[in-house]
Design goal:
single chain; 198 residues; alpha/beta; 5 helices
Length: 198
């Protein structure tokens, strides 16, 4: 007897961020398949995940935030960027941003379709700067210091998050969250049950 077809689930902001942070291509591919997406191995690495849904023709570009693993070489580069470039509004000149921009342009060229960009914390800057008029962007707890509002990006923050408290976009939407601890409030798990779909 054939196996019943698995129902395709809707991809939420939480799931997109969670899968992006896995930084394991096989696990990413398996999880994204549940949502009807195929992970693009050529454009995916430890800093980002690009996936395409052949049924809906949607493209998702998930840019990871700062590394929290002190044993990762990316950790020191990310936190140096946070201190020197995020706070001064010069993040767009960093190698991290330039690599994301290059990957985004390759994604646009390859799929010739609108892209949904997703980012958390540091990567919210990338999403805010790269999301074009035909794209959509979603950020969570963004370090959007000295950033201009992008009308194509929806910014979310958790009420007690310390990073996004310093942000300046006018359209920042505040979600309640589960903790009063500003560091715990920064985690993506705070939106696990939020019905924010891409």
């Amino acid at each position: 007897m054939p196996r019943p077809l698995r129902k395709i689930k809707k991809l939420s902001l939480y799931k997109a961020l969670k899968v992006g942070y896995l930084r394991n291509e096989k696990k990413q591919a398996k999880r994204m398949k549940r949502f009807g997406y195929i992970v693009d191995k050529d454009l995916t690495n430890n800093e980002r995940m690009v996936a395409y849904n052949p049924t809906t023709r949607k493209v998702v570009f998930v840019e990871n935030g700062s590394s929290v693993n002190p044993f990762s070489p990316q950790f020191y580069e990310d936190w140096q960027n946070n201190i020197q470039n995020v706070t001064t509004g010069t993040f767009e000149y960093t190698p991290r941003f330039q690599a994301a921009k290059s990957a985004y342009l390759k994604t646009k060229q390859k799929y010739e379709a609108p892209v949904t960009l997703v980012g958390h914390s540091q990567s919210a800057i990338t999403v805010n700067d790269l999301t074009g008029k035909n794209d959509k962007g979603y950020t969570l707890n963004g370090a959007l210091i000295k950033q201009k509002d992008n009308p194509h990006v929806t910014n979310y923050r958790i009420k007690n998050d310390i990073v996004s408290a310093l942000s300046n976009p006018n359209d920042m939407r505040t979600l309640q969250g589960e903790s009063k601890n500003p560091f715990v409030s920064h985690a993506i798990d705070n939106i696990r049950n939020e019905p924010i779909f891409l």
